[in-house]
From TrEMBL:
Function summary: Component of the general transcription and DNA repair factor IIH (TFIIH) core complex which is involved in general and transcription-coupled nucleotide excision repair (NER) of damaged DNA.
Identification of the protein by name: General transcription factor IIH subunit 4
Keywords on record: DNA damage, DNA repair, Nucleus, Transcription, Transcription regulation
Localization: Nucleus
Pfam families: Tfb2
Protein family: Belongs to the TFB2 family.
Length: 135
């Protein structure tokens, strides 16, 4: 992230100085991955210093992704016919409350029919997050 707005090479020694000593193994692995993906390119600065240069296309696109801007996606709706499946805020609020109530009923072992409508994926999330245990 530090190199996102730097448009010149950053010496590798400087980048390494940003890393806590006990995490140099993870740093080297990340650097190898970034170089392998050609996101960071190794270049030589005047005087023979080795440096990293963030690929310009990646830099520009990540800036757009993080800060907004750019062109709309090809599939973005820019007019034309309205979506016949469009939902309003009230509908979405009510639906979210209903689904949350189902999860709560399931978690407390309620015998109401609402507890039966919890998906297996939701059950797995509850178990893996430690919120519930299997008997």
């Amino acid at each position: 992230m530090r190199t996102l707005f730097v448009e010149q090479p950053v010496p590798q020694a400087v980048v390494s100085s940003w890393v806590n000593g006990k995490f140099h193994g993870e740093h080297n692995s990340a650097v190898k991955t970034l170089a392998g993906l050609r996101i960071w390119n190794e270049v030589h600065m005047p005087g023979g210093l080795r440096a990293w240069l963030l690929k310009n296309t990646f830099r520009v696109q990540l800036r757009i992704a993080l800060l907004g801007g750019g062109k709309a996606w090809q599939g973005a709706v820019t007019g034309g016919t309205p979506d016949k499946y469009s939902k309003d805020v009230t509908f979405l609020d009510n639906y979210a409350k209903e689904r949350w109530e189902c999860v709560l009923h399931f978690m407390v072992g309620s015998t109401s029919g609402a507890a039966d409508t919890v998906s297996s994926d939701t059950k797995q999330v509850l178990v893996k997050s430690g919120l519930m245990r299997r008997k």
